[in-house]
Specification:
alpha+beta; 7-stranded antiparallel beta sheet; 10 helices; 28 strands; 28% helix; 29% strand
Length: 601
């Protein structure tokens, strides 16, 4: 009943036509391609590349006079060639890959826009690589020149690719499926049979059947032309439009975003005003007036860790319990902030970034009067939360002559003290099991009145002198909770209180493009699924009267790419149509004569 032949179809390469190049077991592919004509063209919306006379890649215009005219044509030709390359799908995929590759350093290397403290720590631990990374802008990847260049080129490439494909696809939707090729036998899937039905009746039955199967179909000459699978191109275009939406969302997020960091000790609070931030960055289109009014207090930070085994010390729980208020007169509400589970308040999200310890210390002067008492946040330097920092007493202290003086105590804290008697001090577990605080003592001027900004976690000793111990070295001591270090010559004392608070650092950010980016991502996935699993194909049914007066029915199908489903679909269509136009007996088959009435059987 049927005959099946093979075809080789060209890939969807931007800048080339999508007309399939067919091959047959009996004749060459060129003859077959010529037979298909417009029937096999435009199964893809890829723009066609045509050579322009007098331009790069095209023949010279005869009699072109003058070097200036020739140079102008060459520049125009190169420009067109460059534009075709930039807007090709191949270059778009390369740029998308480069964009993904360029985002890797932003995930692995600390970023100034996320956590400046980690950036400073990284620079201090990698002094050799720091100048190189700074020149490559690896601490500000997403606002760097090279990342922006890739981003803009990808944006232009996608727009230049989508606009002509959309215009061409719109034209295809307005048109009708092309008429049947001259020789349907050249198509990859083909079947034929003879029927006693009239050709017009066969075509009407085929038209009704194809429309019922949701084909776009019409009668063209002696055949019915039908097409299906437009959602493939819709999915293809949707995928690329969604990429543009995601790029626009990213750009909007960079222009209108705001990000700020704040370190808060248990019991302290924060109000969302610019002066409250430890660091703050925003996009060029962001206004400080857009900061939503709210405040919150860190009630308690809870951190739990794996107690033993190969993952000993690995964090199991990081959560900050807060009390927050929306607006200036809103009611207090309770909230819980975990890693990757931010608290959202009036469009701003509060993320939990890091935590550490803040030992409570009390400093007394020569008379025993308290001149300083506070929880001092110290910065972790390892996974077991060994921490460093400085305790700075700026006011209230006087030396033995009654002159105002400032004190500085470099501090090293470990939550679980180990290494005693080994000449070193380190922590062997991140929880508060056996806390200890090592202090050194300096006096003089901290330099905070000079107007030059300085790191609150470091001590500038250029205008300070150390207190001396009995051996002439810097006076220092390791304290356990409740112990006191008395300064030499009765200069005062510092007490490590039994209360140890924890601190947490938060990032408060506004990203207006996040919702748009999520929508773009969902649309991109939907478009990708459609472009991968839907096949665009064409079917033709020709019914003509043969030389012997019997109708000959031919059915053939053509897809954009090879698929095992196309033969199955055409076979199903042929069986359905054959039921309405059954196969006529072959003239060569013998026909049993009908015996006359009364004849002997």
């Amino acid at each position: 009943m049927s005959k099946t032949e093979t075809t080789t179809e060209t890939t969807d390469t931007p800048g080339t036509t999508d007309a399939p190049e067919t091959t047959d077991t009996d004749t060459g592919g060129q003859e077959a391609a010529g037979d298909l004509g417009s029937a096999g063209e435009q199964l893809s919306t890829a723009p066609q590349e045509r050579a322009v006379p007098g331009s790069f890649g095209g023949p010279r215009a005869p009699g072109a006079g003058g070097a200036l005219a020739w140079a102008g044509r060459e520049v125009l030709g190169w420009t067109r060639w460059f534009w075709r390359q930039l807007t090709s799908m191949r270059v778009a995929l390369i740029l998308l890959f480069l964009l993904s590759l360029g985002a890797i350093p932003g995930s692995l290397i600390p970023q100034d826009s996320v956590d400046e403290v980690k950036v400073r720590t990284w620079k201090a631990n990698n002094e050799f690589w720091t100048p190189v990374f700074e020149k490559l802008q690896l601490f500000d990847v997403y606002s760097s020149v090279w990342f922006s260049a890739i981003y803009i080129l990808l944006f232009v490439s996608l727009i230049g690719c989508i606009v002509p494909r959309t215009w061409q696809f719109t034209g295809q939707l307005r048109g009708r499926p092309p008429g049947a090729p001259k020789r349907l036998t050249r198509l990859p899937v083909y079947t034929t049979w003879r029927t006693g039905a009239e050709p017009e009746a066969v075509r009407e039955a085929a038209l009704a059947m194809l429309k019922k199967r949701r084909f776009r179909a019409h009668v063209a000459g002696d055949a019915v032309a039908a097409e299906k699978g437009y959602l493939r191109e819709v999915g293809n275009l949707l995928f690329h439009v969604a990429l543009i939406v995601m790029l626009v969302a990213f750009a909007a997020g960079q222009l209108f975003k705001s990000e700020g960091g704040k370190l808060i000790v248990e019991g302290d609070g924060f109000a969302n005003t610019l002066t409250q931030y430890d660091n703050f960055k925003s996009g060029s289109m962001f206004s400080v007036d857009e900061l939503p009014p709210f405040s919150f207090t860190l009630d308690r930070f809870t951190g739990t860790y794996e107690p033993n085994g190969p993952q000993k010390g690995t964090p199991r729980t990081y959560e900050a319990a807060v009390t927050y208020t929306k607006g200036t007169e809103g009611e207090e509400q309770k909230g819980l902030i975990r890693v990757n589970e931010p608290l959202e308040i009036d469009g701003a999200k509060v993320y939990l970034l890091a935590h550490g310890y803040a030992p409570v210390v009390t400093v007394r002067d020569r008379k025993g009067d308290v001149v300083y008492k506070a929880a001092v946040p110290l910065l972790p330097v390892d996974s077991n939360v060994s921490s460093t920092g400085v305790i700075k007493v700026m006011d209230g202290y006087r030396d033995k002559a009654g002159k105002k003086e400032q004190l500085g105590f470099p501090a090293f804290f470990v939550p679980t003290f180990a290494g005693k008697g080994q000449g070193q001090m380190f922590s062997e577990f991140p929880a508060l099991v056996f806390p200890a605080l090592n202090l050194s003592a300096y006096h003089g001027s901290l330099g905070v009145d000079s107007g030059v900004p300085q790191n609150v976690y470091q001590l500038d000793t250029r205008k300070m002198k150390p207190f001396k111990d009995a051996k002439g070295g810097v006076f220092k001591q390791t304290l356990l909770p409740g112990e006191t270090m008395k300064l030499p010559d009765g200069a005062g004392s510092i007490t490590f209180e039994k209360e140890i608070k924890e601190w947490a650092s938060f990032q408060i950010s506004q990203q207006p493009g996040n919702g748009l980016a999520l929508s773009g991502a969902i649309a991109a996935i939907a478009g990708l699924v459609g472009s991968l699993f839907i096949q665009r194909r064409r079917v033709w049914v020709r019914a003509v009267r043969g030389e012997d007066g019997v109708t000959v029915v031919e059915m053939a199908g053509l897809g954009r790419s090879e698929s095992a489903k196309l033969p199955e679909e055409l076979a199903d269509l042929a069986v359905t149509l054959n039921a309405q136009a059954p196969t006529a007996p072959d003239p060569a088959d013998p026909v049993d004569p009908v015996p006359a009435e009364g004849a002997e059987k």
